[in-house]
Write a structure and sequence with these properties.
Layout (H helix, E strand, L loop, with lengths): L5 H19 L11 E3 L6 E3 H18 L3 E4 H6 L6 H4 L2 E9 L1 H5 L6 E8 L2 E9 L4 E5 L5 E4 L5 E3 L12 E3 L7 H7 L8 E3 L4 H9 L5 E3 L5 H13 L3 E4 L14 E4 L2 H12 L2
Parallel strand pairs: 3-4, 10-11, 10-12
Antiparallel strand pairs: 1-2, 4-5, 5-6, 6-7, 7-8, 8-9, 12-14, 13-14
Helix pairs in contact: 1-2, 7-8
Length: about 280
């Protein structure tokens, strides 16, 4: 397995911070109407910040890492064939330039930038940057998950402790599931203390990895949403798998990903959500 060393990890954070300062923050709360466009639905948006940030970060990564395939959310939106690079290339950077674009476009500071470096079908570095606060969540396999402040202060992350179903907080974006799953899931959500959705994987993974929320059921497996966050969650002590029980990998495209504090909690959450 390729290894991302400390110096390279810091360089990747520097590239993300520069991208945020150059392409994202100047446009936050200053978006003109013609700078926001829809993609697949009225609430699936893209802005000039998404396009500019993906382009700049991709350029910086190519300059830094050399022979590298780039899989960016906005590029894939225009050409789905780009997703094949995940399976074909030796080294891949998966970029979500502005995760939580709906929030960003409406002046809500719940958005982030996500970067996963994938080698041999496995995530070898996961980084989530929060431009408004300037901090990061980062992880590498076997080296723990960390919050890194804008000043460089590092704090090791840990998921929530196991708790009874009735005491759990979780993320379930009910509106994103097929109609039959909405019908199945909806009546089961009151079994938990609270369920919600923030329309932003970057912040949902933050809440999971810091222990503020216990679980998350995701409706889709877009790699820019999960390749970095799933590694961060695992390195913070969490357990995740598809609802089928299959282990998650960044090249997967079909299924629903469930994350919980540990395997017994995962089994209990799955039963509460899916069993009759």
């Amino acid at each position: 397995m390729k290894i991302i060393g400390d110096d390279l990890l810091q360089a990747l954070m520097d590239d993300m911070a520069l991208t945020a300062q150059t392409e994202i923050l100047p446009r936050f709360n200053a978006i003109a109407a013609d700078a926001v466009r829809t993609k697949t639905s009225p609430d699936d948006l893209v802005t000039d910040a998404d396009i500019g940030a993906e382009r700049l970060l991709g350029t910086l990564l190519a300059d830094r890492l050399g022979d590298l395939a780039i899989v960016g959310e906005e590029a894939v939106s225009n050409d789905a064939a780009i997703l094949s690079r995940l399976a074909d290339a030796d080294l891949v950077a998966i970029i979500d330039p502005v995760d939580g674009t709906w929030n960003f476009a409406h002046g809500v500071p719940l958005f982030g930038s996500i970067l996963a470096i994938v080698a041999g079908g496995e995530t070898i570095a996961g980084l989530i940057h929060y431009p408004v606060t300037g901090d990061f969540l980062v992880a590498r396999p076997g080296r723990g998950a960390w919050q890194v402040t804008a000043a460089g202060v590092m704090t090791r992350l840990s998921v929530a402790p196991p708790s009874p179903i009735g005491a759990m907080h979780g993320f379930v974006p009910l509106q994103m599931f097929p109609a039959d799953m909405q019908t199945r899931l909806g009546p089961r959500l009151p079994r938990f203390l609270r369920t919600t959705s923030w329309n932003c994987s970057a912040f949902e993974y933050r809440m999971l990895a810091t222990g503020a929320m216990s679980f998350c059921l995701n409706a889709s497996l877009m790699p820019w949403d999960h390749a970095a966050g799933a590694l961060i969650h695992k390195e913070a002590g969490g357990y995740s798998a598809l609802l089928t029980g299959q282990a998650y990998g960044p090249t997967m495209r079909q299924g629903q990903l469930l994350l919980a504090p540990d395997q017994p909690s995962w089994q209990a959450v799955r039963a509460a959500l899916m069993d009759d």
